[in-house]
Amino acid sequence: MSYQTQISSSSGKKSKETMDWIRSWKSTLFLLLEDIPLHLREFVVSISLDGTSATTIIVDSTTGEPLCRPLLYNESCSDALPTVKSIAPANHTVCSGSSTLCKLVSWWNMVDSDKKLATLLHQADWLLWLLHGNLGVTDYNNALKVGYDPELDSYPHWLLAQPYSQFLPSVKAPGTPIGFLKEDVKTKYGFPKDCVVCTGTTDSIAAFLAAQATQPGKAVTSLGSTLAVKLLSTSRIDDARYGVYSHRLDDKWLVGGASNTGGAVLRQIFTDEQLEHLSEQIDPMKTSPLDYYPLPTVGERFPVADPNMAPRLHPRPKSDVAYLHGIFESIARIEANAYGLLKDLGATQVEEVFTAGGGAKNAKWIKIRERVLGLPVSPAIQTQAAYGAALLALKGAQQGVQGV
C-alpha cells in the first residue's frame, strides 16, 4: 500500500496496516510489562526503552493517535529530499530520503487537512508516552535525524524557520526522567507509585551502551535485522553522502551508520535451524569467492546511500553451506567498508569491535568478520540493546525526580 494512500486514509478510517503496526507495538510493550515477575515489580523504580532510529509517527497532539501509518526506519521519502536539501546544510544527516525530516516534509506536503494539531514522535517516544502520558518528548539520539543539533543542544535556525517546526518534540538527554508512570498502568501491573519513565534512545545506541565500550577506537557492530556500526570517536563526523552521522555520548561522539544488510536477509533465505546447522560446516578461515550485496529489498543507507541499490544474492551455488558462507563474508565486507569509510572521513581509527544483537551468537561468523576486518572481534558481555535501555533507566533513577 502506498504512502499516499496511507496519508489520504488518515482523514477517515485508519488503514488495516496502520492499526496492525500500532497494535503490535502497543501490545508487545504491555506484554513485556506482564512478563516481569510479580514479586519483582515493586522494585522497578524507573523505565526506559529503545526504538529503531527514524521510525516516524505523526500523531494528534491532543490524543496521541497516529494521523498516518508509521514510516519505518528503512523507508525512503525521496519526494521530500529536494526540499530538505534546499534548507539544510550540504551533506547534513537529514539529507537522506530515509531521514525523519524527509518523512515529516513528505507528510506535510501530502496532507491537505488541518495540520495544526499534530506532533512528530519516534517509535520509542510514542511507546514511552503510553507509560507517562506527557505527549511531545524525545531524546537527542532519536531527534538527530530530524535535524536536532546535539552539539548546540537545540534545533538549528534553518529548521525552526520552517512552518512544520511547530510539530517538533521537545528534546532531553537520553535517560532523563519525563514523568511518573501513569496511575492506571501502576495500578494494573503493581509498580511502585514513584516509578519514573525516562527518555530512551535508538536501538543501535542502546546496543553500544550495553557493550560498555568506553575508550575511543572501540566500536560496536549491532547485527540484528540490519547492520549498524558505532565507533567511539573524539571527532564528530556527519556526511549524508555516505549515510554517516554522529550521536553525542557525553563529551565524545558515536560515529557510524546503519546498513540495510543483516539478519533480515538471512531470515528470508534460511530458518534459524538451517542457519545453526549450516554455520557449523563453514570453515571461517577460508575466503569465499562469492561476491554479494545482501539486502532484503531495494535500497541502501550506509556505507553507500543509494535508495535504488538492488539486492545482489546471485549466483547461488548448489551448496547451501557455500551460499551462507558467501553471504556471511559479503556482509563482513560491508562492515569493513563501513569502518574504513569512517576512518577516511576523519573519525578515530577502529581498534577493536564488539558485537551485539543476534549475530553475536554465531561463532563462525565472528571468525569470518575478524579475518575480513583484520581486527579483534568478540561478543559484547551484554549483547542486547535492552540492557543499554536498562542502563538509561538506571541513570534516570540516579538523577532523581526533581525535574518530573
UniProtKB/TrEMBL annotation:
Top-rank EC class of the record's enzyme: transferase
What cofactor does its activity depend on?
a divalent metal cation
Gene behind this protein: LOC108987003
What's its catalytic activity? Answer: D-ribulose + ATP = D-ribulose 5-phosphate + ADP + H(+)
Give the EC number(s) under which this enzyme is classified.
Answer: 2.7.1.47
Organism domain of life: Eukaryota
Name the chain's protein: D-ribulose kinase
- What family name appears in the similarity comment? Belongs to the FGGY kinase family.
